[in-house]
Structure prediction request, 267 residues.
Amino acid sequence: MGNFTLGRYLPLDSPIHKLDPRAKIMAMLFTLVAIFIPAGWIGYGIIFVVVSIVIIRAKLSFRFIWKSMKPMLIMMIFLLIMNILVLRSGDVLVSIFGFDIYTQAILQTLYIVVRLLLMVMITTCLTATTKPLDMTLGIEDLLKPFEKIHVPAHEIAMLISIALRFIPDLIDETTRIMKAQESRGVDLKEGKIKERIMAILSLIVPLFVSAFQRAEDLANAMEARGYAPGEPRTRYKVLKMTGKDWFFVGCSILLLIGMIVLMRFKV
Prediction:
């Protein structure tokens, strides 16, 4: 768990780090939409190449990105098993003890896995190259137009940024509690399945207590600094989009359009 990287900001000097957070958020949204367009394996390959180029330009290592994907392996295995049991279409790929596994089940699982991996790559790149404060300002600015219909833009942006900020802290806290319990004789890695489940459940109470304590400390700190939701606020940092930011957003729009074209003309 200590290797969980989603939500961690890496203070590197790269062109992607210097982009406006609104440009990165909009590019992420356009790319996420492009991922869900059924453009086939060619489309997924193009998206993977584009995202990989962005990761390289951001000076992030693929090992760092892979650490964000590892916790999803169990989910992917579960999806494979469910699709094999449920989907009964396509050609029979193999028969095991009289149970047929169909090609459509494998293909559907691969589509889902590739989409999940691409989504994790994009979101990890965003959080690793954007400061939590800049993320808050960017989300708030993008939600500003919705304030006309009484959408609390600032509060939503603050909630999202706090959630992203505390994901690594909660993972570290879970690791600390696990080590503390292991030092007291609790075995979390061996034993019967029921014993391991009960041992893992014993993490929930101290983890919730720690999370609520962190939330209370944060609330007290914000209140002590005069934070009041809904009140007019001034900014020390004002965001301003440049040509590079618009170019970055434009590339993501072109990627989305390219996926739509591939979907319409693929054979």
Strands lie at 92-96, 99-102.
